[in-house]
Amino acid sequence: MEKNVEISLLFSFYGKMLTDRQADTVELYYNEDLSLSEVGAELGISRQGVRDNLKRAEAILYDTEKRLGLAERFLRIKSKLSDIDRIIAEIESSPDSQTLSVNIKKQINSILTIIEEINDDEK
């Protein structure tokens, strides 16, 4: 995973673990894609101060993920949900799908609804 995406994901899980200054720095640099100089100007600190804040924040985010593993678990669940969605699509598109009972079709629709709700919850 690209570092910017990884840090943004970790920040969404653990951003409250950072100081306000670190959180602002991460938000501006990784999520708003400002340069070190632009972040420094925005926060009234030097470019080196921005870099130091980022390094400390990254260390906290990575350490917290290492201990808790919530982001990794989230990504695994998301991947498994995609697998389930793909398998259901294969079942529905197979020539044998016409012979499925009404009950099985209802259960498949229930599963798809649950997957959709989970995906909507993360937005």
Task: Describe the secondary structure blueprint for this structure.
Blueprint: H1 3-14, H2 20-31, H3 36-43, H4 47-68, H5 70-93, H6 102-121
Helix pairs in contact: 1-2, 1-4, 2-3, 2-4, 3-4, 5-6
* Beta-strand residue percentage: under 5%
How many strand segments?
Answer: 0
- By CATH, the topology of the largest domain is Arc Repressor Mutant, subunit A
CATH superfamily of the largest domain: Winged helix-like DNA-binding domain superfamily/Winged helix DNA-binding domain
Low-confidence stretches: none
Characterize the biggest β-sheet.
Answer: none
Shape-level CATH architecture of the largest domain: Orthogonal Bundle
User: In angstroms, what separates the terminal alpha carbons?
Assistant: 20 Å
Features:
2 domains; mainly alpha; Arc Repressor Mutant, subunit A; 80% helix; 123 residues; elongated
Task: Tell me about this structure.
The chain is an all-alpha fold and 123 residues long. It folds into two domains: 3-68, Winged helix-like DNA-binding domain superfamily/Winged helix DNA-binding domain (Arc Repressor Mutant, subunit A, Orthogonal Bundle); 72-121. The chain is 80% helix and 0% strand. The longest helix is centred in the middle third of the chain and has 24 residues, at 70-93. The chain is elongated, with a radius of gyration of 21 Å. 13% of the residues are buried.
